């Protein structure tokens, strides 16, 4: 499983959760889950692209 949530902008950010903050979670049935929070820079499209790359890299790192 893969889950993401975040703030790609241009609005919606705050001091506690600025634009570019993206949270990830990965997990395999019967195995441990992993979570990570990243802070990306750039415009909305750039942040979304970086988030997709990180999410898929995390999926590939999951051991079956």
Number of helices: 1
What is the percent of helical residues? 25-40%
Low-confidence stretches: none
By secondary-structure content and strand pairing, the structural class works out as alpha+beta
Residue fraction in strands: 25-35%
How far apart the termini lie comes to 12 Å
Rounded to an integer in angstroms, the radius of gyration calculated over CA atoms is 13 Å
State mean pLDDT (0 to 100 scale): 95
| Strand element count | 3
Strands across the major sheet, in which order? 1-2-3
Give a verbal description of the structure:
- The chain is of the alpha+beta class and 64 residues long.
- Helices cover 28% and strands 30% of the residues.
- It is built from one helix and three strands.
- The longest helix has 18 residues, at 44-61.
- The termini are close together.
């Amino acid at each position: 499983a893969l889950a993401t949530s975040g703030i790609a902008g241009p609005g919606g950010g705050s001091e506690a959760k600025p634009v570019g903050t993206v949270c990830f979670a990965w997990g395999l049935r019967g195995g441990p889950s992993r979570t990570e929070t990243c802070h990306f820079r750039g415009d909305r499209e750039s942040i979304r692209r970086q988030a997709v790359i990180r999410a898929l890299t995390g999926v590939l790192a999951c051991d079956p």
